[in-house]
Amino acid sequence: MPQKLLSVAIPSYNSQAYMSKAIESLLPPPGFESTVEILVVNDGSKDDTGRIADEYQRRYPDVVRALHQENGGHGDAVMTGLRNASGLYFKVVDSDDWADEQAYPEVLKTLRSFSGEHEPIDMLITNFVYDKVGVTHKHVMSYHRPFPRGEVFSWDDTKSFPLGEYLLMHSVIYRTQLLRDCGLYLPKHTFYVDELYVYNPLPFVERMFYLDVDFYHYFIGRDDQSVQEQVMIRRIDQALRVNKLLFDTVDLDTVKNKRRRQYMRNFLEIVTTVSSVLLTKSGTEENMRKRAELWDYIRSTRPNLYRELRHRFLGICIHLPGSFGRAVLLTGYKLSQKVIGFN
């Protein structure tokens, strides 16, 4: 099979109500008809997801491929997409999200400029939009401050990330072979593995390019969505599993580049803070024990990193004692929700 420029995997489980919008938004624009493949991974759905995927494959046989598997969860569907990808670059788009019509050609044009005879980049970064239901002003996660624009850059060229600003799966397009070479593995039947997806390849990323367009629309509003706060609290054990895997899979003591290590440490700090806040917010004794166990786990497995995180601002806030400490932590969390628009 001839190599495509971009492979887009759409993990889909019981997505009949909204998956068409995602697929339609990713059909290649004029001038790029032969450069994109869309891999719709039907993850053991019980509704018409599989039939819809097959219908799109029938209508667009040179673009859409329907892949059917037994239910393995979001991460397993991403891995199925990666195994079947023929593109030089690889992107994941969730079935309830979509790509921006105006930004899409710019993304493809940029990727094409680094294909062929040119040395490929390892990661393309774009902005994404928190498309939250009922919110008029949609918050855009952009990267003007840490990344230079319009040029290939390395970690040495980056600046510090502001607190709360970080890369998500929505903002990155990886070189496909890099994902394979780094040994990326996402566990089955586990939510929140997108954190592993965006984090674990970073020690292998050297050449980057930031395209300042709002490419990805991250939909927030379904009651059963995994990022809804009460859903996250119910699934806190899965979030904790991923949180611990982030510490297990990369030893930051071996990451020598200062800027890269700083960013990766900050990412771990954000993820661990969210886990700690949700455990605190639930208010149960069991979850407070789990919060203590999480930090004990970090201390026992990554003692140097534990000392850093524990004595930074967020680590201090998490461990403030009593009802005052709880109030400070949850107030800060609510303000972050209001400003950024997540959950």
Could you explain how this protein is built, in words?
There is one protein chain. The protein has 343 residues and is an alpha/beta fold. It has two domains: 4-220, Alpha-Beta Complex (Spore Coat Polysaccharide Biosynthesis Protein SpsA, Chain A); 229-340, no CATH class. It is built from 13 helices and ten strands. The chain has helices spanning 19-26, 49-59, 74-84, 103-113, 176-181, 194-199, 229-234, 236-249, 258-282, 285-301, 303-310, 313-318, 322-340; strands at 4-12, 36-43, 64-69, 87-92, 98-99, 123-132, 139-141, 152-153, 172-175, 208-220. The longest helix has 25 residues, at 258-282. The model is unreliable at 339-343 (pLDDT under 50).
The pLDDT mean sits at 92
Task: State the fourth-level CATH superfamily of the largest domain.
Answer: Spore Coat Polysaccharide Biosynthesis Protein SpsA, Chain A
Uncertain segments = 339-343
Tally of extended strands?
10
Question: Any guess at the CATH architecture of the largest domain?
Answer: Alpha-Beta Complex
CATH fold label of the largest domain: Spore Coat Polysaccharide Biosynthesis Protein SpsA, Chain A
The overall number of domains is 2
Structural class: alpha/beta
Q: Please report the number of helical segments.
A: 13
Question: Could you say which overall geometry the principal axes of the C-alpha atoms support?
Answer: globular
Strand percentage, roughly? Answer: 15-25%
String of helices and strands: EHEHEHEEHEEEEHHEHHHHHHH
